Amino acid sequence: LPICCALLEAQSCGVPVLGSNAGGIPDAVADGQTGFLLDPSDVAGVERHLRGLADDAERYRRIGEAGCARARSSATWEIYADKLLAVLRDHTPESQLGPQIVLDHGR
User: Closest by alpha carbon to 29, among 3, 55, 60, 59?
Assistant: First the structure.
């Protein structure tokens, strides 16, 4: 489960993102498709990607739309809640399970 909420929130608004290729960030960014992953010390790379996005409105739009679609289809709170419940069910001894939790999500 990616936990980079700021990146996912930006993507859900159609904003291409730049992030470091460390920790959980690569789980939230499809490099070259929804944003860009860079080495944390690559200042020149950050500048290159920011200028590239600023100078190419169509590329900004395309990457932003891809990020928005990805965030809205795979990074909703409902999806996270379902995944978390599945992990808890899989790793909790049956004797310790309480009543079955069912999330409706309005579906």
Answer: 3
